[in-house]
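task queued by scheduler; priority normal; single chain, no ligands, no partner chains; default sampling; output format set to structure tokens
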Amino acid sequence: MTLSKEHKAAVITQFGGNDKNTGKTEVQVALFSRRITELTGHLQQHPKDKHSRRGLLMIVGKRKKALKYLQQVNIARYRQVLADLDLRK
């Protein structure tokens, strides 16, 4: 259920600029979103997996907090992340 190194590196370079910039809020939100999609697929196959469901809810909360922080700090970067990840309609 974890991201492979190649997928993680691709997400980091896409949203962070280079492979060393992992602390950027956009990178963290993108990684959270990627893990959320993977866990959602896992939970569709295994609906009784309550531990993974709890992990999914925790990751959703972390992404929500990171997006709220990004919205308060820089609204332009927030809107760009939403557009790139197709999070809001």
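post-processing summary
- Residues 50-73 form the longest helix (24 residues).
- The chain has a mean pLDDT of 91.
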